[in-house]
Structures are given as C-alpha cells and as structure tokens.
Amino acid sequence: MANVEMIRAFVARVLEDGGLVEGRAEPDSDGDFQIRQGSSLYWVSPGQAGDESGLVQVFGIVLEDVPLSRKLLIAVNEINRDYLWVRCFWHERRLTLARDLAADSLTAEALIGACAQIGHIADEQDDKFKALIGAGRTAFEDEPDDADSVEV
C-alpha cells in the first residue's frame, strides 16, 4: 500500500523547488496541486493506483464543453501518436491530457518534465482544437498582446 501523504509531501517540495508554484505548494480539497500555464490549467495528483502502488498523475483539461466528433477523434489520435508517454482522451464533454508516473521510482526531474510536457501541450493545443472543431472553452482565455497598453 502506497503512503500517499509521503508522495504528496515529495510532490509539494518538487513543485516549490522547481518554481512551478509561487510560495508554498498547497493541495486543493482533493489533495491535488493546481498549476496554470498560459490558457491551460493542469493538476498534479499524488495517489494510489489500482494495484495499491504509488502513483502521481499529471493531467490537464485542454477544453471543456466539447462535442464528440470524427474531427476531434482524429486530432486526439494524432496527440496520442505524436507525444511520448501522454494520453489524450474525451470524456463527459472534456478533452483531457494525462501522464502517469510511478511514485516509487519518481525523481524531481521526471516530475518537473511531466509538468512541463502536460502544461505545454495543453496550452499549445487548446486553441488549435477550438479552431478545428469550432467549440469548447479553455480554463483561461489568452490575453491579447496589448493587454497592458492604455489608450490615450
């Protein structure tokens, strides 16, 4: 049986030391750590796999409110084909990316790499999926380049 609290403490330390969170890493009510990258939101979830081994899942919602379509499934298959160790899937009108890591052999570098990979892919692909299927919404809408400018 995995010691989930020990895994959670390790994850918190890596997120803090790796600069993925500002200040102290605090889990949400589910025990997951929430991280924003661009217009995407992803979570680092310490836990236990079905065989009771330790597991850390890094997952992000690419788009919400996405209808299932042939175009969507083709694009999902392309993600699954093109990115190593990442799975993309549609479930309950959500397009999700995930990467599972075995906790017993997890290093700080591997966790930081998985976070960078999921965050980058989710942020890079969300607008492409929206344009392709003409639907869905991101966790955060991208701000225009001139968001800090002031009209005089």
TrEMBL record:
Pfam families: TY-Chap1. Residues 6-142 form the TY-Chap central domain. SUPFAM superfamilies: Type III secretory system chaperone-like. It comes from the Bacteria. This is TY-Chap central domain-containing protein. It comes from Catenulispora yoronensis.
